[in-house]
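Structure tokens please, single chain.
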Amino acid sequence: MVLGYHLIISAYGFWLPNDPRGSGSDVVRSGKLLVFGEATKVDAHQCVSRKPHDRKKRLAAKKALNRPPVIFTGLQARAVARGFGRCSEKTAATVWACAVMPDHAHLVVARHEHDIEVLGNLFKGEATKQLVREKIHPFQGQKGEKNRVPTCFGRKWWAIFLDTEDEVLRTIRYVENNPVKAGFRQQKWRFVLPYPERYQKPKGGV
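Here you go.
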């Protein structure tokens, strides 16, 4: 039985639909990216980040993007986390771990009444709203589809299913240590609850 999910949300440009290691995308929408290959659809419940790949090809494709890849500042990362906290509060989703990195974010989320596909979009949406609300969105002032600010997140994300308690605990430790390994401080957010407090209502906020 699925106990929870490891949700990996990428910033714009972090993980492309035709990444040589694989992606969760079915198509490549950009003609500029298509010259580097078709979509590399794989099982979205598997992690392929450590898979050997053509790094030069991946970096060349990133240079073909319409906008520079997003690298969140500290303030922007905090706003993203605040958005995650709002989502957690609105949906009563239990978050056991969260780390917002410069170009992606990790969440360990307990099994929820919403499918993880729905929950992933809700987390992204609230993070975007918070960035706009604080007027620090990476593409603040620019207009994209439907006259809206262009998305600062990738269209797709990874959702790794966690079926055992050992998998949950191991993933929580991985997410908590992720910033430290990258040279940042360990992150602590108010909406994150200690495992296994699955049904305690999150306080919200950051």
